[in-house]
Amino acid sequence: MPRFARIAAVLALMLAVTAPAAAKSVEIARMADLRLSELLNIPDYRQVWLSQILPEIPAEDQAWIEETLSSSVPHGEVRVNGKRYLASTLRHPHDDNKLYILINEQRAMAAHVQFHEPHRMPAHSEPYQRTEAFTLRYYGRPGTAEKEALKELIFQEWKAEAEENARQKPDSKNE
């Protein structure tokens, strides 16, 4: 086989091997920006949602979760123990309760942060600060690594919200 033909054959083989991986990477990047309702239109995602998450959610929460699927916030791709998940958040329409979700074609899990009545900070604290008690429940039987990934998702969102609130808070020193 002439040298040019061998080089062409090797390049064709390399392209055949890398093209599907590149296409899969582009597909993953596109899916990372989808809302949960759009992901659940894909049969594999719908199936894991219906079989692994929905049965574990209390009946009183299923209605608001179904209602807010289209307004979910995508958080991109998260890797846990080498497995790829798409992360998303659902917010209750009337309070601060949230559902943080990790989902892929084989597995789905969620952390439900349910807030209780806010409690004011002690008198010596800064104005506008308060603490809130909450309950954290897991659905989909996440392992330790998945729970840590869900907690990190919660922490990152809370941190971003706190930074946004700090920017919006009036500066009392300049008043």
Structure description:
It is a single chain. With 175 residues, this protein is of the alpha+beta class. The protein is 45% helix and 26% strand. The protein contains 5 helices and 5 strands. The protein has helices at 3-31, 36-39, 43-53, 59-68, 144-168; strands spanning 73-80, 83-91, 98-103, 108-120, 130-139. The chain has a 5-stranded antiparallel sheet with strand order 1-2-3-4-5, sandwiched between helices. Strand 1 and strand 2 (83-91) form a beta hairpin. The longest helix has 29 residues, at 3-31.
The biggest sheet amounts to: 5 strands, antiparallel
End-to-end CA span: 83 Å
Helical stretch count?
5
Helix content: 40-55%
Report the C-alpha radius of gyration, rounded.
Answer: 22 Å
Beta strand %: 25-35%
Strand order of the largest sheet: 1-2-3-4-5
Mean pLDDT: 80
Low-confidence region ranges: 21-26, 120-125
SSE blueprint:
Layout: H1 3-31, H2 36-39, H3 43-53, H4 59-68, E1 73-80, E2 83-91, E3 98-103, E4 108-120, E5 130-139, H5 144-168
Antiparallel strand pairs: 1-2, 2-3, 3-4, 4-5
Brief account:
The protein is of the alpha+beta class. The chain has helices at about 5-30, 35-40, 45-55, 60-70, 145-170, and strands at about 75-80, 85-90, 100-105, 110-120, 130-140.
